[in-house]
Design brief:
By secondary structure, the protein is α+β, with helices and mostly antiparallel strands. The protein has a single domain, classed as Glutaredoxin (3-Layer(aba) Sandwich). The chain has 5 helices and 4 strands; from the N terminus they run H-E-H-H-E-H-E-E-H. Strands 2-1-3-4 form a 4-stranded mixed sheet, sandwiched between helices. Helix 3 packs across helix 5. The N and C termini lie far apart (39 Å).
């Protein structure tokens, strides 16, 4: 069962969080995301973004709070501010440059 745990390192407290929200029984409804896929995405993003899988069955209130139009969906959050959102699961090669550019621009605005 997937549980959301608080980030506990100093480095992770300053990281943006990429929530990867998945539907229950994802194999029937949408492409699945394996632990290896998430680990590869985390490696691409590095320590500036913490990748966190959110299973709708285990955490329905979290998924509802973001009101995604469909699942799976990704939401990038930094200091409580949503910076970027993508319905579906784009590949790391596509999403990483987009997220990094958006995160850089928006985090500068959030910090000001």
């Amino acid at each position: 069962m997937s549980r959301i745990r608080p980030l506990d390192t100093e480095e992770s407290r300053e990281a943006a969080v990429l929530l990867v929200m998945l539907p229950p029984l994802a194999r029937d409804l949408a492409p699945t995301v394996s632990a290896a896929d998430l680990a590869a995405l985390q490696r691409h993003l590095g320590p500036s973004v913490q990748v966190l899988k959110v299973d709708q069955a285990a955490n329905p209130a979290v998924v509802r709070s973001f009101a995604p139009l469909q699942l799976p969906a990704c939401v990038l959050v930094y200091r409580g501010v949503e910076l970027w959102r993508q319905e579906g699961l784009p590949s790391a090669e596509v999403v990483v440059p987009l997220m990094e550019a958006q995160w850089t621009l928006d985090s500068q605005q959030v910090i000001r």
